[in-house]
Amino acid sequence: MGWTPPATPGRFDLLPYLIRDAEGHRHLCQLPVGAIREVAIVHPQHGALQAMGLKWYAVPLVSNMILTIGGVDYPCAPFNGFYMGTEIASRNFADARRYDLLTDVARALDLPVESPGPALWRDTALAELNRAVLHSFKAAGVTMVDHHTASEQFMIFHAREQAQGRRVAADWRWIVPPQAASACEVFHLRMRNFHPVPSFYRDRGGDGLRLMPWYGDRYRSRLSTWYDRLTRRWKNWKRIPW
After folding, report:
1. Bridge partner list, 17
2. Is the predicted pLDDT of residue 23 greater than 70, yes or no?
3. Does 40-144+198-213+220-236 carry CATH code 3.90.1230.10?
């Protein structure tokens, strides 16, 4: 697509955006320098963590989902909110298939990584990494919520909706935080995602090639089209408030 990476690639290089127009052409959009605010991650007590040079962008933006509302599908409806600390600390930084930095963070905190026995240093490293992320965003004046507060907020929302006679659709895997899950009240809440509308849903292709709702069947084989139609009818049936 013509993108030129930095001369010295780093772990936190900002990639350009790919935007697909109505004719199916993809366009490369390079953001100007300084367009995205980034927060340097520091620990209030351990300076060695700051030496790792960790940072993260301030505002999470989702642009690869389709908004369905009023019977109309909008394939280009980006939206944003603000981060929960565990999304950055417990997932983006710590996941083995993401940045996989948990061992490096533990060594920076002087935790006994190589000691025999249960690897409880992981729990300590995760807790301290979450503390560093929350501290850094607060110091930078960027809105962020911790997982315990978010759990309490969801329970209040759930109670209000039930008081009005409305069911709450939720995915347990997304609502329950990856850090101290059983210590949060949402861990013990039964959830079911019955796909109500209006809602956002993901497109078929991860690279934007098929950024369109289901009526883009011309890109699919007959077998895939037939399978999509059955799946769509099943999902629509589940949405009906029986």
Report:
1. 29
2. yes
3. yes
